Amino acid sequence: MPTGSPQWQIVEDLSPAGGETIVEKTHGSTFGDTNFDDVLTTKGIGHLVVTGAQSDACIRSTIHGGFARGYDITLVSDAHTTEDLSEWGAPPPDQVVSHTNLYWSFESGPGRIAQVQEAADVDFSAPSGNT
To answer: Which of 34, 58, 59, 118 is deepest in the core (most CB within 10 A)?
Structure first.
């Protein structure tokens, strides 16, 4: 999508509330060539809850990028998706989503949390010191 094009715009149903930060990205990882890490640091955020599209590209890049930078990562198992790329040898979308959930459930790192949860089980109340 060309930057600034109609396709680049945020859809009305997802319009940010006043004061919410917008991070525009042009690479798979939200951390790639953006100010996302600075925004999170400034706001004292250390735990990311990840949803969205493309499970096999942007989602994977972002969860790995965040985890490598020291963030705790919750992947919301029923809130990420991908398009059907089986014509080019990829598994069907439901298998891509399942595999992403599976392998992330086994991720680990010193002093960090990597977990997979269904949307209904995600707790958005931030414990003290771990937002």
So the answer is: 59
Cα–Cα distance measured from residue 122 to residue 131, given in angstroms and rounded to the nearest whole number: 13
- Amino acid identity for residue 35 in this structure: N
Other Cβ atoms within 10 Å of 115 Cβ, number = 16
Encoded amino acid at 12, one letter: E
pLDDT for 19-36, tens place per residue? 899 999 999 999 999 999
Question: Which contiguous run of DSSP H or E holds residue 117?
Answer: strand 114-117
Q: What are phi and psi of 81, to 5 degrees?
A: -150, 175
What is residue 81's DSSP assignment? E
C-beta separation of 96 from 84 below 8 A: no
End-to-end CA distance of the chain: 32
Nearest residue to 101 (alpha-carbon basis) of 48, 47, 60: 60
Q: Taking the model in full, what pTM does it have?
A: 0.89
